[in-house]
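User: Hi! I'm working on a homework problem where we have to compare a predicted structure to a textbook description. Could you give me the structure for the chain below?
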Amino acid sequence: MTSKKQIFSFVVLLLVILVGMYFFQFQSKHNDSLQSALEIAARDKKIVFVKVGEPWCPPCVKMDELLKSSPKLQDLLKKFVFVKTGIDNPEIKELQVTNIPFLIFYSPEGKEIKRHIGFLQEQDMIVFLEKILAEGK
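Assistant: Happy to help. Predicted structure tokens:
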């Protein structure tokens, strides 16, 4: 009887791990590599949107929550190749990020379009992203 319980427990644990791994792949809908994002942008003719932040930065966390929770921002993000990264990323260090949250945008050709430092409220972010899209194409 004990071995049946152990087998059952093992199967349940294995299923939990597999289900968790399956859903984890859908949680990360962004790149963390600027170089791979630039390659995707060139292929798909999209603008790269890089958001630099850290989990210990309250405005960064608030911006992440806003990007995840706003349906309008979610729709706009689909029009970009989105990179979410931190200040310790070697690709980011050469951008001379001085404050976070830090946003930087690149054309599909890899040329820098715009930079922004600081938090944006939802409506301001919507207007800002729509303007980037309009000017970048």
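For your comparison, note the following. The chain has six helices and four strands. The CA atoms of residues 53 and 78 lie 20 Å apart. Good luck with the assignment!
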